[in-house]
Each structure stands twice: as structure tokens, then as C-alpha cells.
Amino acid sequence: MHRHDDAEVHEHDRGLSYDLPVLARRRMIRLMAGAGLIPLVGCTSEERTSAGASSKGADDTSSAECATIPDETAGPFPGDGSNGVNVLKESGVVRDDITKSFGDSAGGTAEGVPLTVTLTVVDAASGCGTPKKGAAVYIWHCDRDGNYSLYSDGVTEENYLRGVQETDDKGQVTFKSVFPGCYAGRWPHIHFEVYGSLADATAATAVTNTSQLAFPKDVCETVYDSDGYERSVDNLSGLSLETDGIFSDGADQQLAAMKGSVARGYTATLTVPV
């Protein structure tokens, strides 16, 4: 089975040289805000999930507190045509259940603790009060072994855990998936891209926002204590949101609000101001 050794860890997040431009821009904005040069407010969360219980989280926003979702790297395995493979132009990529591969792929199914992800795309300029109806969201993440379909050894013929949807009247998209594993060097996360329309997404053009969703530590620890996630236990033990190369400069806007259990599955929700 494919393992993420030290060389592959560097490939997953490509180190500081890859992420520094994004992080530097974000930190500069924060510094300018502190100096009073520009206003900066964020959609923050105060309470996080206790395993098996619901919490108030990053999906709770008010019209007085709203900032555009932080820009993040899409990483080396986007599948959007920017790094080789382009899954967005394939028939079948528009779907809500991303647990199975589609089209001419191998037809495999990703195993793991059930996870339902709901992203609510809103207009930041309106104070997060106006949903972005008719936008599109593409999400992708690794499987419970830390492998990315289309790229990682053993799953290059699969395209599961990738999918696109158009936002509804509430600006929402909901995907059925499985809880991702934790590979060495990165905090557990889901990648997503926002497009102005479904036509733009399926043409793989005009990305408006690229970011990542983070998972609360207590939920990760609970999930990784279940069967199939054994390798994630050691990988998570040496990580934290504060030291992660992506989330270390603040993850309040990207930390999902969660509820559920291993037995029933989890739901993750996040508001995405664009």
C-alpha cells in the first residue's frame, strides 16, 4: 500500500517555498489591518465539537463579521487540469455522492467513517448575508489511507472523493463522502475551489477562490481510533493546527463545525464567504 515517506510529505505540501507566497500575502493583510490601513474582520467560531455532540462553529456568521475565505494552495493533486489530470471535464463529475469512482475509472469505492459536508457560499461584500446562488464548488480530499485518487500509487485509476455541485437558493452544496485520513506532514483537511458557475467549473476555468477546510482535533482523534485509520493515529500525534503549514496563521474561518459519531457518521459545515 502506498505510504507517505519524507520525500512524499514534501511533495504533498511542497514545503515553505511552495506555500510561502500565499501565507505571506495573508500575513501582510493581517499586519496592515493591525496598523489601521485596511479593515479586517473574520467569521469566527467560539465552540468546537465534542465527539458525538453538536457545536457552534465556523458556519455561524453575522452580517457584522465577514471576510473572504482565506486563499490556500490547491496542492499537487487537484485534478482540475492545473497539474496534469483534469477530472472536471469528465461526464459524471457533477454529483453529490463522491464515495465511488465514475466513468471509465476502476470503479472503486472509498471506505471509511461516513461524512456529509455542507458548504454555504455567501457574498462577503454583503456581510455574509447574501447566498451565492448558481455558483459551483469542487471538493477533493485523500482517502482514509492518505492517498489521492488519480495520483497516488494504487489509486491512479480511481477518481473517487472528487465532485462538483451547483449552489442552491441558500448558496449551499452538500456532498456525501468519508472522513479523510491524516498523512504525514499535514493536518486533516478537504480542498475546495469555488467557481462563478457550473459551466465554469466543468470547463475548469475561472476559479474565483481556492481554500481548505480543517477538522477539529477531538473529532479526528475519535475517528482515527476506529478500524481502518490506524496509520492516521501516529501521523496526527505529531501535528497541530498551530504548526500546520497551511493553517498555522489562523484557521477560525476554515475550521468546520461538526456533529455526529463514528457509528452514525459525521456532518461538517462551513460558511465560505467569497
Describe the secondary structure blueprint for this structure.
Blueprint: H1 6-13, H2 15-34, E1 114-123, E2 130-131, E3 136-140, E4 162-166, E5 172-178, E6 189-195, H3 198-202, E7 207-214, H4 217-224, H5 230-237, E8 257-261, E9 265-273
Parallel strand pairs: 1-9
Antiparallel strand pairs: 1-2, 1-5, 3-4, 3-6, 6-7, 8-9
Helix pairs in contact: 1-2
Largest sheet, strands/sense/barrel:
5 strands, mixed
Proportion of helical residues: 10-25%
What's the helix count? 5
Write down the overall geometry. globular
Tell me the strand percentage band: 15-25%
Q: Low-confidence parts, pLDDT < 50 over ≥5 residues?
A: 1-64
User: Structural class of the secondary elements?
Assistant: alpha+beta
Give the SSE order as H and E letters. Answer: HHEEEEEEHEHHEE
Descriptive key words:
disordered N terminus; 21% strand; 274 residues; 5 helices; alpha+beta; 5-stranded mixed β-sheet
